[in-house]
């Protein structure tokens, strides 16, 4: 349980810090979404461009089975490397956005 709490706080802190980076242009609303009951964490970007509403998830991390599952990373930040810097073992990081076949060629967990 201690490990799970550590990962929850770490992911939330990372996303809160990242969400402070405002885009250089446009009136983009940045939302941090924390479902602490089911351990789903996201950053959303919301903006109107002319008559079109754009809703985009730039980062999505889930914590499942005491591992950090990076579901999506639409940024230039290497989230897995940031987790490692914060003492998360590579065996506790899964790059979910990669196919299971390709995951075995990374330094991180397959599942």
Describe this protein with a few key phrases.
111 residues; alpha+beta; TATA-Binding Protein; 5-stranded mixed β-sheet; 3 helices; 5 strands; 36% strand
How is this structure best described in words?
The protein has 111 residues and is α+β, with helices and mostly antiparallel strands. It has one domain (2-103): XisI-like (TATA-Binding Protein). Helices cover 26% and strands 36% of the residues. The longest helix is centred in the first third of the chain and has 18 residues, at 2-19. The chain is globular. The chain starts with a helix and ends in an 8-residue tail after the last helix. The mean pLDDT is 94.
Summarize the structure.
The protein has 111 residues and is α+β, with helices and mostly antiparallel strands. It has one domain: XisI-like (TATA-Binding Protein), CATH 3.30.310.110.
